[in-house]
Amino acid sequence: MSKKEPIYILNNVSKIFQDKNSRTVAVDDVSFEINKGEIFGIIGMSGAGKSTLVRTLNRLEEVSEGQVIFDGKELGKLNNKELRSTRKEIAMIFQGFNLLLQKNVLANVVLPLKLAGIPKKEREEKGLEMLKVVGLEEKAKVYPAQLSGGQKQRVAIARALAMNPKVLLCDEATSALDPKMTEEVLKLLQEINETLDLTVIIITHEMSVIEKICDRVAIIDHGKLAEIGDVKEIFSSPKSSAAKHLVLPALTGENPFDMTDKKCYRLVFDGRSATEPVIANLVKETGKYVNILSANTRSVGGVGYGQMIVEFPEDIKDQRVVLEYFNKIGMNPMEVSKAVK
Ligand SMILES: Nc1ncnc2c1ncn2[C@@H]1O[C@H](COP(=O)(O)OP(=O)(O)O)[C@@H](O)[C@H]1O
Ligand SMILES: [Mg+2]
């Protein structure tokens, strides 16, 4: 997009849950903007305040302080009627799909249109059109129980799109899905972002989801905005400790640092270099070795994407040689240690 125009502006948003015995600051003075047409990620550990924050975006949660401005309107200032019509522009999908099990797929998709009083013929036409968008036309008369998790989420997406929203909020929408179905749903979200000119906001605790489709990402840590920026940039050089925590576990299930006491570095492959030759060339050029402790890289058309954790040689001079080599070829080496476990 040529010009950046915000669809959301958050100004010093806080949400405090308070009762007689306890006080939780779930969202703590958060300010940022989300632009029209982007795929924006909100990531954080469990309990960081993501769901609470996202619920302030359609005023399912009233803010305690600050303002949420959607498409030029401050949500907190809308009366009930205005809020109802504005909410039609803000669709949401969840981890649990929220489909009605006793209704078939088409009936699920047209439900919001039915509630809005759209006549039967018209809403069924629209429903079928939306099912076509998500690639499930032939499942119109089928019941949710007969669908896979990925298909259920696609039905939920078709239902969310039925009202022609401007924004789609996705709260952990792929967290209950296996990697293949996750891929399928993310691809669909990317497609509708492009074809329907829809702003998509992805809330997740998984960096791999953000990395696949988001343009920019906000990192939430203990209710606060820890870091915000381009996904590529944050992925290759995370600055806040929250970002480092989120980027590193994307590597493997195991913790590579349990295996070593030596100096370790993280290498990022961002498409400029192939993964294999980098290590082979290090040996060829410098005569020094590194140990690969963990790798999560994939090759796309001969170029490498992902990251690797390598253990450096013991000798300090050797370490310097290796570090210089990685710097020279633009690998963004970042020292990692038990501190960011
Ligand atoms: N309705 C509520 N009442 C009290 N505390 C809440 C409520 N909703 C969320 N919280 C608390 O707010 C914090 C953030 O929760 P949540 O937004 O669900 O985090 P996340 O989605 O990042 O896992 C947690 O400490 C949670 O217990
Ligand atoms: Mg949540």
Keywords:
about 350 residues; alpha/beta; Rossmann fold; Alpha-Beta Plaits; 6-stranded mixed beta sheet; 4-stranded antiparallel beta sheet; 11 helices; 14 strands; about 30% strand; globular; binds adenosine-5'-diphosphate; binds magnesium ion
What do these coordinates show?
- The chain has 341 residues and is of the alpha/beta class.
- It folds into 2 domains: 233 residues, 3-Layer(aba) Sandwich (Rossmann fold); 90 residues, 2-Layer Sandwich (Alpha-Beta Plaits).
- Helices cover 34% and strands 28% of the residues.
- The chain is built from 11 helices and 14 strands.
- Strands 6-7-8-3-9-10 form a 6-stranded mixed sheet, sandwiched between helices. Strands 2-1-4-5 form a 4-stranded antiparallel sheet, with helices on one face.
- The model has no long low-confidence stretch (mean pLDDT 89).
- The protein binds adenosine-5'-diphosphate and magnesium ion.
- Magnesium ion (MG) binds next to helix 1.
| First-residue to last-residue Cα separation | 38 Å
The CATH homology group name of the largest domain: P-loop containing nucleotide triphosphate hydrolases
- Roughly what is the average pLDDT, rounded to an integer? 89
How many helical stretches?
11
- Strand order across the largest sheet: 6-7-8-3-9-10
CATH class of the largest domain: Alpha Beta
Portion in helices = 25-40%
CATH architecture of the largest domain: 3-Layer(aba) Sandwich
